[in-house]
Write a structure and sequence with these properties.
The structure is a single chain. The strands form two sheets. A five-stranded antiparallel beta sheet has the order 5-4-7-2-9, with no helix packed on it. It is built from three helices and nine strands, in the order H-H-H-E-E-E-E-E-E-E-E-E. The chain is an alpha+beta fold. A hairpin with a 2-residue loop joins strand 4 and strand 5. Helix 1 packs across helix 3. The protein is rod-shaped, with a radius of gyration of 48 Å.
């Protein structure tokens, strides 16, 4: 155990001394704040002491750096807002482009479609009634085998062959009518199994009909 003597009452500071010490500490803290902290940290020098001892220069540097950092933050924020606006505008343009493309595809949808099955050795013939200079687009698909076909036209004593195919599984293109009349296909199944022909059509023609 420690055997320490207790201080006597005469050795303890009086209330007056405590008050004086507290006042001195408070005044010192205020003086340090005004003379050192404010010039060094915030570039505020009400007494001029900070300029004399070089602390105000330090405060100017810190204030300048803080201003530059704030300016950089504002520039980054403005750049982000501009980028966001740019993406929004591009999104509108892209959306409009997709809408226009969809509308274009819709407007170019196939006008007519026919599908039929040919047994081995069987034939069929379909024609478009067209006037000279008119154009029709077509897409032909063959499932289950292959066909021979002859794409031709006739009318008013005129005849023309546009395309011929042997062992075809499909074809697509356009017909430009060289004269008024009927323009279309003759198919024959030369395989040993049934085949299904699907024909899609659009363009300038007045009628689609199956030849007798």
């Amino acid at each position: 155990m420690f055997n320490a003597e207790k201080p006597s009452l005469d050795q303890l500071p009086s209330a007056k001394q405590l008050v004086r010490s507290t006042v001195i500490a408070g005044v010192s803290a205020v003086a340090i704040l005004v003379a050192v902290v404010l010039p060094a940290e915030y570039n505020i020098d009400p007494t001029g002491i900070g300029r004399v001892i070089g602390l105000k220069k330090m405060g100017e540097i810190k204030t300048q750096l803080a201003d530059e950092a704030e300016a950089d933050r504002l520039m980054d924020q403005a750049a982000e807002e501009q980028s966001s606006l740019l993406y929004d505008v591009l999104g509108l343009f892209v959306g409009a482009a997709y809408a226009q493309e969809a509308a274009s595809e819709t407007s170019e949808a196939w006008r007519d479609e026919t599908s039929f099955t040919l047994e081995p050795g069987e034939s069929a013939e379909w024609k478009l009634v067209m006037e000279k200079g008119q154009t029709a687009q077509y897409r032909m698909a063959v499932e289950g085998g292959k066909v021979n076909f002859d794409l031709h036209g006739h009318g008013g004593g005129n005849s023309v062959t546009y395309e011929m195919g042997r062992g075809s599984t499909g074809s697509e293109g356009a017909i430009l009518a060289e004269f008024n009349g009927e323009h279309g296909w003759f198919w024959r199944n030369r395989d040993n199994a049934d085949v299904t022909v699907t024909l899609q059509l659009r363009g300038e023609y007045s009628e689609v009909k199956q030849a007798d």
